[in-house]
Amino acid sequence: MTEIQQDQALAEAYDGITAVVDDLDDAHLQRATRCRGWLVADLLLHVLGDAQRALVALASPVDGPADVDDVSYWRGFPGGDDGAVRHAWWVRRSASAFDRPTGIARVWKETAPAAVRAAAAADPEGYVTTQGHVLRVPDLLATLTTEAVVHHLDLTPELPDAPPPGPLAVRVAVSTMDGLLSDDAVRPAGWDDTEFLLKATGRIPLSDRDRLELGEAAGWFPLLG
């Protein structure tokens, strides 16, 4: 994927989330998600944190070289550890501080477009720092897109009319999972992109047939927590 497409993919990913939450009322924003213990409003606040982190990173260029790329970045986030549990609880308490869930949606709709504009204006040859790592700008954008696409899918199990994430953004997320799967394994041919993303992130368990087709690689799942 070319570097100019990375900012377009992020725009598509964030626009997709906005399309999911744009017309939701307080009741719908309190529906369950695929993230254990999180309502739609909670998860939206988590993704809002990513958009805010993007603004800080993109406005704070650093010297290279990068120490991770858009795939190896994720190997530091296996999921399920004590830090993840603490963060989940922090998000729930922070979301509850809003007077109404729609307040979170309002801040998201103000912040996400700003992050997209910053991404479009960033030097694609530059480096930024986030989460204790140095990344090339396009790789940062790919990590943000991947997380947004996965969480877009997380938002929707109780929102049957929600639109799916856009195809360019999905391509970035799938490319990330392919990278984590490595060249030594191939995903089952029967999986479409959505099933791959949900199984690669542990949202849907592997079936017996999946395990048979994946062989030894089944033990690597979930690829991303």
UniProtKB/TrEMBL annotation:
InterPro entries: DinB/YfiT-like, MDMPI_metal-binding. It holds the Pfam family MDMPI_N. It comes from the Bacteria. GO terms for molecular function: metal ion binding. Residues 11-155 form the Mycothiol-dependent maleylpyruvate isomerase metal-binding domain. This is Mycothiol-dependent maleylpyruvate isomerase metal-binding domain-containing protein. It comes from Micromonospora lupini str. Lupac 08.
